[in-house]
Amino acid sequence: MKILETKELTKSFGGLTAVAGVNYQANQGELSTIIGPNGAGKTTFFNMIAGTFPPTSGEIWFRGENITHLPAHEVSRKSIARSYQIINIFPNLTVFENLRIASQSRKVTYNFWKDVEELEDINQKATKVLETMMLQDRRETLAASLPYGEQRHLEIGIALATEPELLLMDEPTAGLTPDETIRIMELIQTIARGLTIILVAHDMDVVMRVSDRITVLHQGKILAEGKPGDIQKNEEVQRVYLGGQRY
Amino acid sequence: MIGLSLGVIYVLMASGLSIIFGLLRVVNFAHGTFYMLGAYGFFYILTLSGHFWVALVAAPITIAAIGMLTEIVTIRPLYGTTEINPLLLTLGLTYVFVDVIRISFGLAGEPTSIPQGFAGAIDLGFMIFPKYRFFIILVGAAVISLVWLFVNKTNIGMVIRAGTKDSEMVQILGINVRRLWTMVFGIGIALASLAGALAAPISGINPEMGEFTVIEAFVVVVVGGMGSLAGSVVAGLLVGEIVAITTLYYGQAGHASIFALMVIVLLTTRYGLFGEA
Amino acid sequence: MKTNKKIEWPYWVHVPILILLPFICPYSALATNILIYGIFAMGFNLLLGYTGLLSFGHASFFGLGAFTTGLFLLKLKTHVGVAIAAGVLMATLGGVVIGYISLKRREVYFAMLTLAFSQLLFFIGLQMKDLTGGDNGLAGIPIVKLPLGINLGRPLHSYYFMFVIFIVVSYFIRRLLKSPFGKAMQAVRENENRATSCGYNTRRIKFISFILSTLISGLSGSLYCIQLRFVPLETLGLNTNGEVIFMTLIGGLGTFWGPLVGSSVFLLLIDLTSKIIERWELIVGLVFIGFIMFLNRGICGLIEKARSARKQRRGAPAGSV
């Protein structure tokens, strides 16, 4: 069942067209990946869905609702969350506080009186994400002091803590060692149950293993789409993107 | 017209501020203080040496040197911390410098007069202009043109302009960015102290003279666009005229009009008339 | 809950300290000013220390509170409660207008807008001599007398009156900072973009935070007026803008007690230096610069950092609070 759909989604910056008439679909419960060389338009695509900036033309539909021109905070409230390629956390707050801020965003923002420590369900949710992301030992550590690999965990955790139905993940393995990459991908597969994930990634190992569907973007357009096996065999994809690699 | 010569003073102040903000990303609250130091420097060098031109040239150079020293010792350590630290530091510098002057030269300041050679007025054909104010306009225009040439036509100027857009890139290219920043700071201070030196014969000197001028300079920079030389010129002359006209009719309260102008400009344009991010 | 009991007592320890303050200080009016400016700085700290917005025009709200309360007491001869309420309301109204407009821009431009408004108010105050007394300020504000023989003209009475208000206000601020909204403010400060993508309407949060900040600063202005029985035009002026920044930074941005510590240090410093040499601005300027360069987190900030470093070294075991 379609959960996200874009219709002729286009974004131009002055003379440069980053995304050109993309018709994309994501199905509920699937883990879809978008791959493509640098500059293919992947992050721009995400930015439009997340509401960071509006498209030049085209539409975005989520659960049958037109969310094309919603501002970013309202997109989040529709249960779409996003994690970033460059670590984007709350540096001077503890790991737990980082997650709790994300957990409370939907509900109680304008409460000036209650002590946030006494809000059971928000604290429980944050603790759950803390455990899922394997950061229990770092609960009281300042986010800025975490080593890079754990910051990545936190980065994803913040998005997860907002309880999304659709999770957009931009290069979640960027900058990680091979071991750390394996850990993150296992984590992602764990959280993928019950969630729809669209992942932008570079690491072909990762992509081939976890994806239900792969979409290849090139120069702002969809080059190919399908199951991992089909993409591997696709000659155009090999030429443009994988060219030279043993895949 | 008085507005024009006042405008030139504003242009000098504002371009200094603008250059410093454009490259260093520092909002220099002490700019008015250097204006005041320029005036004091000019006055005392003139009193000591008796030579007008010596004083006019030496004062900005001396004060610029002081400015650069200050930048190296106090502001440089703060680059890369938070955005507001250098700004707050310059605020603190204002208190220190002003009080040092008070202690050294007294609270009252000194009265000044227009030097002999510039007394009186000249007849431009279409109007009669006070000689000294005309002189200010000439000097100001010359200096600003020099600065413009420097920024736009020299290699160093090109590096400065590049650094305004992307300081990381400039660093990667191996250019000693810190020395560049100090130099740019020095240029900005030289402009401010020149403005003070030029204004001194008309306004007298006193320790607080820079306090309000810097606020007005900020208005000019914001209206013109932070980091834009052309913006400082246009806005400076504009604000100069507005202040001259409104103070004629409304006295001191005329100064408030420039704030209304700033609010309007900030709300209707994104970054001032000529500004970019 | 366990957590609350553990941390509550250090919070209330400030009460006996403040009860004794007028006797520790050289004279009780100084202690009163410490409280008044402490409240001012607390309001400012909400905006800068907790939400991350630097305003260069908070004198607007201090002055609006001071002049409005002064006028209500002097010209309208109302009850002091009404006068204070009016001062706070006026300052908050100013906050709504100025905040709404200034927040349309970010960072430096935001700061410049707040500065422009505060200067605008200053010059308007200068012009409207009938209302404000112009350059001379608003003088002759009557002494406030309350039931039970409380006479705010007497230094100790005035101090304990302000003390009660301080306790109440600081308690409200404390609750605010521990509330979801308080955390939201900090999220905006730490990373506005991420806060937005978590679903926070950061524009609205900044606006509300601004209004709360002006409300508190306006209250401090009202109290200032009552204490001094005179409102100088400088309450709207540049120096007031600078002073509150000094105090908040020295005390520690984003810490709870920073503002009060900052106002104490600032006022005591001025008092001390003006006894020895005439010019206190030089000393205060140097101290301020020293703090920015070497003690950037302020007094309370450094204490907090030391405490959390110790806690992390000891290593909080998983699941403990």
In short:
The complex is a heterotrimer of chains A (247), B (277) and C (321). Chain A has nine helices and ten strands. Chain A is an alpha/beta fold.
Structural account:
The complex is a heterotrimer of chains A (247), B (277) and C (321). Chain A is of the alpha/beta class. Chain A is 35% helix and 26% strand. The relative contact order of chain A is 0.18. The model of chain A has no long low-confidence stretch (mean pLDDT 88). With 277 residues, chain B is mainly α. Chain B has one domain: Orthogonal Bundle (ABC transporter involved in vitamin B12 uptake, BtuC), CATH 1.10.3470. Chain B contains 11 helices and 2 strands. Chain C is an all-alpha fold and 321 residues long. Chain C contains 15 helices and 2 strands. Chain C has a two-stranded antiparallel sheet. Chain C is globular. Chain C starts with a helix and ends in a 7-residue tail after the last helix. The interface between B and C is large, with 40 and 35 residues.
Total beta strand runs of chain A: 10
* Number of extended strands of chain C: 2
For the sheet with most strands of chain A, the description reads:
6 strands, mixed
Overall domain count of chain C: 1
Derived from helix and strand composition plus strand pairing, the structural class of chain A reads alpha/beta
**Can you summarize the main beta sheet of chain C?**
2 strands, antiparallel
Mean pLDDT of chain C: 89
Fill in the keyword field for this structure.
heterotrimer, A: 247 residues, alpha/beta, six-stranded mixed sheet, four-stranded antiparallel sheet, 10 strands, 35% helix, globular, C: 321 residues, mainly alpha, two-stranded antiparallel ribbon, 75% helix, disordered N terminus
SSE topology sketch:
The complex is a heterotrimer of chains A (247), B (277) and C (321).
Chain A lengths: L1 E12 L2 E12 L3 E5 L6 H9 L6 E6 L2 E2 L5 H6 L2 E4 L11 H10 L15 H13 L15 H14 L4 E5 L7 H14 L4 E5 L3 H7 L2 E6 L2 E6 L1 H6 L1 H8 L5
Parallel strand pairs in A: 3-8, 3-9, 6-7, 7-8
Antiparallel strand pairs in A: 1-2, 1-4, 4-5, 9-10
Chain B lengths: L1 H23 L6 H19 L2 H24 L8 H22 L15 E3 L4 E3 H23 L1 H11 L1 H6 L4 H27 L5 H16 L4 H22 L5 H13 L9
Antiparallel strand pairs in B: 1-2
Helix pairs in contact in B: 1-5, 1-8, 1-9, 1-10, 2-3, 2-4, 2-8, 2-9, 3-8, 5-6, 9-10, 9-11
Chain C lengths: L1 H11 L1 H11 L3 H23 L8 H16 L5 H23 L4 H21 L1 H4 L12 E2 L3 E2 L3 H24 L1 H11 L1 H6 L4 H27 L9 H14 L6 H19 L3 H15 L3 H17 L7
Antiparallel strand pairs in C: 1-2
